[in-house]
What we know:
Bound molecules: adenosine-5'-triphosphate
Structural class: alpha/beta
Shape: globular
Distance between the termini: 44 Å
Strand order of the largest sheet: 3-2-1-4-5-6
Helix content: 25-40%
Number of strands: 6
Number of helices: 9
Number of domains: 1
Strand content: 15-25%
CATH architecture: 3-Layer(aba) Sandwich
Order of helices and strands: EHEHEHEHHEHHEHH
CATH superfamily: HUPs
CATH topology: Rossmann fold
Largest sheet: 6 strands, parallel
Amino acid sequence: xxxxxxxxxxxxxxxxxxxxxxxxxxxxxxxxxxxxxxxxxxxxxxxxxxxxxxxxxxxxxxxxxxxxxxxxxxxxxxxxxxxxxxxxxxxxxxxxxxxxxxxxxxxxxxxxxxxxxxxxxxxxxxxxxxxxxxxxxxxxxxxxxxxxxxxxxxxxxxxxxxxxxxxxxxxxxxxxxxxxxxxxxxxxxxxxxxxxxxxxx
Length: 201
Ligand code: ATP
């Protein structure tokens, strides 16, 4: 089985996440995409809402796509939040499957990854989606530093840039504005019902 691994904070999950996962699935011929919410964040501020809420929103968002699943490996109490530590656990959990890691270009261009070579060694493919504001040169610089045998595992996804970000969603909500149609309907309903991200009604 060809598995896509899509890690993130998902605070909250939004439409660009889903479009990216579906694009990667189709372009890479993946059988399934695993959404892997993280408990620990190293390269950004802590999540604004709990892992339980974030998972509930992911489950609501992916419910209509039988190829999408939630994986809780990176939420375990002993998860380090480093992809280099997550991947051996996923290899154990899905023995014999091919693993394709899916990310947005900002994740690679804007932070220095711990043990990036190790990450690539655990993977069959590492695919990158374009993201507004990320310059191709910044990405190329990171990729050029990878040993050639591992560099061959990295590819860019041919898909449009999408403007949504969880930061934008949280900002709009904190200003009392609607994010309906920027997130799946189930996520919007959940945010309203649970009064998340500072909304008052
Ligand atoms: P935040 O705005 O809080 O940083 P985010 O929208 O980037 O959040 P994450 O959960 O941190 O959401 O992202 C999970 C993965 O999805 C990351 O690899 C990120 O680069 C990617 N991603 C999120 N939004 C987009 C987008 N609009 N285009 C391409 N990739 C995206």
